[in-house]
Specification:
With 422 residues, the chain is an alpha/beta fold. It contains 17 helices and 10 strands. The strands form 2 sheets. The chain has a 6-stranded parallel β-sheet with strand order 7-6-5-8-9-10, covered by helices on one side. Strand 8, helix 12 (257-266) and strand 9 form a beta-alpha-beta unit. The longest helix has 30 residues, at 371-400. The chain is elongated, with a radius of gyration of 31 Å.
């Protein structure tokens, strides 16, 4: 089986492409089962975040076209629209890619920890959908262990840099004193939780959390002394917000130009910072055309994020060395699977020989033969049966001058032969 990791990310595709190939959580099980039903695909998992959409597959052959074709068809795209942004990594490269992604080495923010949780969710979803087999299961478990080792053995996560942190850092640059301002956070997932935590630590005056599930929003807001509202209540509260940061899984924009324009008028044109870190986008791009609105997307955060990368470069190099070693370990396990059928066949034949000589010995014992003689004969027959075929093959190899086979036999059977006998 061939391993394949392919997809697009923030390095290869702009947000307008990434949002078109994102898998919404509700459709993931359907997508997984549809792809795994393909006769060339034996295993599959899908990772879909705001910065990347990736498929991890086990294929019955080395041709990735079947998966690429399904990917285009599922999202209603033709090859010209999406292929220029796609990368595809087979086998060893696929393993290295997954380890790097889980360790935060391929993230928008070097070393950010959120991706590991997202990868665990991708594994869990695929496992529940029944599309994870032996090899991908082993690869995911290996990936999680390596990511943990990288976190433990390097300082890759020492600096508090993330998309959430970058959004708050941007807020601090625009509003020097956050204690005088109110933030509206749209969504209640892990990213928004991190944003709320960073804002709270930086002394924000008020946090308002808007979410489709108000109970979840209330639980998050209460932790930081804020209050919660439903999404349909946003128009009534938007004018209160000096900072709006949004990260939801909505397939449609939540804030439109008209709604924001009304809020700006109610604020008497006091400026508003809006940071949209969702894919697909939560805030219509036309909102950025309004006066007094400063709209940033995840792509705009790159420059801010770069400032926090320097301290992680040395740690990243150490992480790369760990990953190279662990890639070799996993590929060794993959190669060992090729020996399984041979080992099983050898054991089955040996056990058949054993059963044959044991049955013969049991008949002799029932006939009253001497026990010691029966045991001795059993040992002789079993030894002859087990060694006969290898000896025949080694003699033939010597006759034909196939000395490499004799060297292999000595290694296989761990034979120590004096040099003067060689």
């Amino acid at each position: 089986m061939t391993l394949l990791a392919f997809g697009i990310n923030h390095k290869t595709a702009p947000v307008k492409i990434r949002e078109r190939v994102a898998f919404c959580p509700e459709k993931l099980p359907e997508a997984l089962q549809e792809l795994s039903a393909h006769n060339r695909v034996s295993e599959v998992a899908i990772l879909s975040t705001c910065n990347r959409t990736e498929l991890y597959c086990g294929l019955d052959d080395s041709d990735p076209e079947a998966v690429l074709s399904w990917f285009r068809k599922f999202h209603g795209l033709d090859a010209r629209e999406v292929d220029p942004y796609i990368y595809a990594h087979p086998d060893r490269m696929a393993v290295r890619h997954m380890l790097r992604v889980a360790s935060g080495l391929d993230s928008l923010v070097l070393g950010e920890p959120q991706i590991l949780g997202q990868m665990k969710s991708a594994y869990s979803t695929a496992h529940d959908a029944g599309t994870i087999g032996r090899k991908l299961n082993r690869l995911f478990q290996h990936t999680f262990l390596v990511a943990k080792q990288v976190r433990t053995d390097t300082a890759i996560g020492a600096s508090p840099v993330s998309v959430a942190f970058a959004a708050v850092n941007l807020s601090r640059q625009i509003y020097s004193n956050l204690s005088e301002h109110t933030a509206l956070l749209i969504g209640a997932g892990e990213t928004i939780e991190l944003v709320a935590r960073h804002l709270h630590e930086n002394g924000i005056r008020q946090i308002v959390v808007a979410n489709r599930t108000v109970e979840k929003a209330h639980a998050l807001a209460a932790e930081f002394g804020g209050y919660a509202i439903a999404l349909n209540e946003i128009p009534a509260h938007l004018a209160e917000a000096d900072i709006v940061i949004s990260s939801t899984g909505s397939q449609l924009p939540i804030l439109g130009k008209g709604m924001v324009e009304s809020a700006v008028k109610a604020r008497k044109h006091r400026p508003v910072l809006m940071v949209d870190i969702a894919v697909p986008r939560d805030i219509e791009s036309e909102v950025g055309e309004l006066d007094d609105i400063y709209l940033y997307t995840v792509d705009d955060l790159q420059e801010i994020i770069d400032e926090g990368l320097r301290s992680r470069q040395e740690a990243a190099q150490q992480a790369e060395e760990i990953i190279e070693t662990q890639v070799a370990h996993f590929m060794g396990w993959m190669r060992s699977l090729q020996a399984v059928a041979t080992i099983r066949s050898y054991r089955d034949r040996s056990e058949a020989m054993r059963d044959e000589v044991v049955e013969h010995a049991m008949r002799q014992l029932r006939a009253g033969h001497d026990t010691e003689e029966v045991i001795t004969e059993l040992a002789r027959q079993l030894t002859n049966k087990l060694t006969h075929e290898p000896c025949v093959q080694m003699k033939q190899a010597g006759y034909e001058g196939r000395l490499e086979l004799l060297d292999t036999a000595r290694e296989l059977f761990n034979l120590k032969i004096p040099e003067d006998n060689l």
